[in-house]
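User: I'll paste a sequence; please echo it back and then give the predicted structure.

Assistant: Echoing your sequence first, then the prediction.
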Amino acid sequence: VSDKENADKFTNIKQCIASLLKFNVESSNYSSLINISICYKLMYELYLNFGTPQNKSAAPQSEQLCRLNAILEYINDNFTDDLSLDTLAGTVNVTPAYLSKSFKLLMGMTVSDYIKNIRLHQAIILLSTTNQKTEIICEKCGFPNTHSFLAAFKEKYNTVPSRWRKENKSHFKII
């Protein structure tokens, strides 16, 4: 392997790390979502360039990983929208059934569970940093209605948002 090839291997990895640093220094409401996406890209680059040969044969094809990265970025950028499997599949030109199956295989969760987790993560950020009402947070996080937000929140955190905020009040600064 030439020095040029080694340098090329590290270029994308360095860019991922630089992006992580940038988005954490210039923090915004969506920094954590961007971090997740960049971490997946970083894992992809590390695996692609430094994975062992026996693992590579059993690993997903790089095309699948590129599609996955595109889907994750699309979800992270548009989590407040009504994201259907048809819409997501259309962004990477695959069938909804194929997207559903490959996403579950690669991520270990369904597309809808991933979207719900992204929305709940954003809800925690808003609960931690604002005094906004549950209805407003629900809307800003892309949940279709308050009932679905409360059910998802209770399922994941075993409490309701108002109680979570009250119990964790001392851990954050409301702006």
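The two ends are 53 Å apart (CA to CA). Residues 3-25 form the longest helix (23 residues).
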